[in-house]
Amino acid sequence: MGSIVVAVAGQPNSGKSTLFNMLTGIRQFVANYPGVTVEKRVGHLEYGGHGFTLVDLPGTYSLTSYSLEERIARDFLLHEKPDLILNVVDASNLERNLVFTFQLMEMGLPITIALNMMDVAESKGMKIDVERLAQELGIRVIPTVAKKGIGRLEICQALLRTYELQDGISSFRPAYSSELSKSLKTIEQMLKDDARALVYNPHWLAVRLLAGDEEVRQLFTGQAGLTSDSL
Amino acid sequence: MIILGDTVRLDSLKPGDKCVLKDIKATGAIAQRFMDLGLIPGTMITVVRNAPLVDPVELHLRGNHVSIRHSEAQRLEVIPWEV
Q1: Across the interface, do B62 and A62 touch by the CB < 8 Å criterion?
Q2: A8 shares its domain with A79
Q3: Is 0.95 topped by the overall pTM?
Q4: What is the pLDDT of residues A112-131, one digit of tens each?
Q5: For the segment A132-154, what is each residue's pLDDT rounded down to a tens digit?
Q6: For chain B, which domains are there?
Q7: Chain B residues touching residue A64 (CB < 8 angstroms)
Q8: Are A213 and A78 in contact (CB under 8 A)?
Q9: Which residue from A27, A105, A203, B43 lies 20 to 30 Å from A171 (Cα-Cα)?
């Protein structure tokens, strides 16, 4: 039986590399400034009779095509088709980090959230209703303090559960204005019978096309069927 | 009562000043990064640090501290306000 591929994704300074090390046991230097993880790092984990291959993606604020790191992370998620996504979220910067989570959700990927740095959030006086968050998002949310090794077993259990049940795909969508929603629906409708909408999530394609994403536009240039101009 | 001022560039405000973000005068990667950092029109901002010629300009918004360059702060149109 093959190994289950888990992409570890999140924003810079969310403790992504620390959590990766906690899960895989790989010793490695973790610096305290953003942008330290540029290359792809891989580690292994055994749990519940399954082998997991963890891939540590570069930390980025978004999943657009503006920077090399973002393109690396996005291409892996879109083209390597990992079985699961472990989204590391800095609990003490929840609002900003969730913007990244919403982008993962719009790509239609199966997500488990590691709500990391719970200790920092608490010391900031934040009280996070983890259960409510999981309920609203419709995915598993596991509180962790990776620096202290807290939450390791719970993450393993959540990953295995998500894999076995084949869930974790959230139907939660950020609320766009009614004008934007209308335009998105129109584009999605146009994409309905397009081959590219079978490979990529149609909603995500529509969002990225409206945002003028160069790489996504190129998917629709010089090919038969819909072109970016007709869209 | 809240008194709103005329639209100015964020770069012209002093430490302690509060304002509401009105518009981002940028496109592409810079605009995306502004939004990633929570700088979305309507966001309330407090200037923490802003000294002439010295980068960065430090802002407080949405419970976070965000540091940007003067050249970037000039691209943010804000409405100053006082309570």
Answers
A1: no
A2: yes
A3: no
A4: 999 999 999 999 999 999 99
A5: 999 999 999 999 999 999 999 99
A6: 3-82 (2.30.30.90)
A7: 29, 32
A8: no
A9: B43
